[in-house]
Amino acid sequence: MGQIQGFHHVAMNVSNFDASKGFYTDVLGFSAAKEWGESGSRAVMLDSGNGNYIELFEKDSVDSGAGGIIHYALRVDNCDEIMDRVRKSGAEITVEPKNVDIQATPVEDLSPTARGSE
C-alpha cells in the first residue's frame, strides 16, 4: 500500500523577498536549490538539507486574511497509488501531481515578512 513519506515543501508568498530569503539562508542555514522569475515576481526553492524545502514567492503585499501559504506537497513512495485513493475518496484534485527536479517539516514561519505558517 502506498505510504505518505513526509512533506516535500511548503510554499508561501512573501512581501520582502530578499529579507525572507536571507532569513532562511543566512539565519536558518537553508540553501537555494532553484531560483526563477524577475524582479517583482521572483521565486526560490530553499533546501533545508534533508529533503524538506520552503518555497518563497515574491508578492507586493501579503494579505494576512488569505495567509502566505500557497500550497504544500507530500513526498510519497507510490504517487499513482496515492492519487487513485484520493480520486476514489471523492476529494477535489485542483492540480495533478508532477515530478519536480529536486529531492524532497513544517515549522512556524518566523521570517520577517511572510505571514503564513505551517
Descriptive account of the structure:
This protein is of the alpha+beta class. The chain has one domain (4-89): 2,3-Dihydroxybiphenyl 1,2-Dioxygenase, domain 1 (Roll), CATH 3.10.180. It contains 2 helices and 5 strands; from the N terminus they run E-H-E-E-E-E-H. It has helices at 17-27, 79-89, and strands spanning 4-14, 31-36, 43-47, 53-58, 69-76. The protein has a 5-stranded mixed beta sheet, covered by helices on one side. Strand 3 and strand 4 (53-58) form a beta hairpin. The longest helix has 11 residues, at 17-27. The protein is globular. The two termini are 27 Å apart. 22% of the residues are buried. Mean pLDDT is 78; it is low at 104-112 and 114-118.
Kindly summarize this structure in a few lines.
With 118 residues, the protein is α+β, with helices and mostly antiparallel strands.
